[in-house]
Amino acid sequence: MQHSICSVLLIDDEALARDYLQHSLEDHADIALCYEHCAERAVELALRVEATVVLVDLRMPGTDGFTVVRNLRADPRTASIPVVLLSSEQDAEIKVQAFAAGANDYLVKWPDPRELVARVRYHSGACVAARQRDEAFASLARSQEALRASQAALHQAQKMEAIGQLTGGVAHDFNNVLQIIGGNLQLLKLIGGVNDNARTRIDTALAGVERGARLAAHLLAFARRQPLQAVVIDPSAVLADMEDMLRRVLGPQAAIVTDIAPALWSTAVDPSQLHNVILNLAINARDAMPGGGTLTLRARNIPSGAPELSETGNGDYLMIEVADTGKGMAPDVLHRAFEPFFTTKPTGQGTGLGLSMAYGFVKQSGGEISLKSTPGQGTSVRIFLRRSEQAPAHEEETQSAPLFGGIETILVVEDETAVREATAELLSALGYQVLQAEDADHAARQIEDGADIDLLFTDVIMPGRMSSLELSELVRRKLPKAQILFTSGYAEGVLAHEGKLDPTISLLQKPYNADVLSARIRHLLRRRKAA
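^ histidine kinase, sequence as received from the core. Prediction below:
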């Protein structure tokens, strides 16, 4: 209910007082009068009419004016409302008692209407000004608190971005080192002539390379620098395929509840990376429930404007939730949970990259991720992915081919000498005719000079005047039937747009092994023959 700026509450046991005030105020539209004869209701009425000044008679049966003043001052909601005592007695001692009780003014009945209006406006204006001041201070406090929260969020975002840039750069160089080690070890196995003990040692070292590759992949995922092969998927099918795997991961002690809503919306995402994210979240849930518990895999359509999207954004989203009934996280742990290498697990039982990898993947996919946890009650991770209006894509099946099945000509372009030579020897051992170039400029000269190749295998980022993309365009013009396979420690924004690869681009991530390299090359060369 809206009131005039001067809201006057009159408390007097005689209706004559009401009549006098109504007559005195009738020409003043900005002053609203409320009359009450019951002094016991003073606080209640002052709040109801949002009084900006209270006029109260001093002498009333039962509760007198002094008591009304004390009651108003005792309640924090009415303590600041100005109170004017009305009395028929012109007595200095009574005035002293009135001001001692908390009155703001003392009027002898009945003053001139002009004086009455002036005093009412004066006290009401002071009350309104005080309220505006208090609201301004409260608003300032809220703004400062919001600013502190925004600064903290900005600081956290800047810290995560700085960590991401560092880890991305480290992972890129680390992948090249792994490729040198892995490529030479695989070459040793292919060349042969090693005894069983040496072969076992080589396999152990290759397993270490694969472990390092997974570590680098997690770092790149957190840094949002992994190349995503996003396709439109049916999430129901992807999640249904994961149920058996989750049961193997969690073991017999944990129960799994799948709560997948019907008719889930499609979403554009890299299915293999989504698979890895859910697997990592399930492993975290298993470790949080050493004595057993329940893991819930839930999926819902969340339409635009739903309460779940209050911190996410506009638009329709698919929500995937992984929740457990484990130990939960304390607030200080929850605040750092997405940081890479941060873990509460004992040494050797976790890298601290599971949640950071999930964070980076979801952000790079254009979605949002939220983490809620209560100590002793469990943890919930919710992933929000944007809805796609397109129909789910069908995966192209690739058949494996024997490692020794190729006789075509391949041009290997790589600025890292050790990587290039190991890869060239590996392809030669597989039967291919191999040409080498240290950068795109040298490779372009070979093409211009008439080199006839079936496939270009090129690193993405190399020094030199010509880029790998420009080299690929030259190959397409000169040798339209030749296939192109890119490789990189990470896409680095050259091939990827907003972290997503064009579906027409073939990219093999470093470090790659002989099996994967051979399979990708045979797949592309079969496509060439079919064309």
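The mean pLDDT is 81.
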